[in-house]
Design goal:
By secondary structure, the protein is mostly helical. The chain contains eleven helices and four strands, in the order ααααααααααβββαβ. The strands form two sheets. The chain has a two-stranded antiparallel sheet with strand order 1-4. A two-stranded antiparallel ribbon has the order 2-3. Helix 8 packs across helix 10 and helix 9 runs antiparallel to helix 10.
Length: 233
Amino acid sequence: MGWKLWEQWRLIPARTMYPGKRIKRIYRSRLFKPAAVLFMLTGLVTGGLVEAGSPLGNIVFRAGYAFPPTRPAFLRFYQWSLAEFEGGYLPSRADEFLTNRISHCEGTREETAIIDFQIRQGSLKWGDCACRSREELQGKIISNIMPRLDDMSDNDALSAMVFIESLRRKETIGKGGFTGMWTYNDNAATLNRSTFNKAKAGFKDWWNGGNDWPELKNTDPLAGTELTINSGP
């Protein structure tokens, strides 16, 4: 009986007897180092996205933004990431970086992507750097928005007009919105189309009225209407 057990034990493959040898073989594998590096990079990127406002988050953001052809796509991904991990709020470092980039990419897809990124953030969650920027830059932002206002979705157009007004006032209009723009019934909100069209017409007349920026800063786009844009609670 003892001899049979010895024979069976002796026939067990070495890899089951000595797991340390198997581990060493894995370490020495040509795929181990690339896989380890990939694993570490994945952890760093994930950590940077989850903590977007941290120094690591800023490094991950700048690295993701580094390749010019993919910047518009990266901003869409970054906006999704902010909504998933940061409540949608834009970190101040990213806000300052993007606002500064507008000065260097006028007339490009990148410029439009940055401005649309801020518009989609909405007045609750966009940054305030553009509102504090110099008048020349504010004029460039508005001149990018206005020719595209009619082509935007209703929500984006509303956000764009509030964004323009925040630039004109040089202040962040937190939770900003138009008076009388929505009708509420049974917890459902319906856009007042006539009010919406009146607001867009007011902004287009204001921009195309013959005056130049920054002289337009002293004129309310909604002057002569009952509409106003106010900050929320």
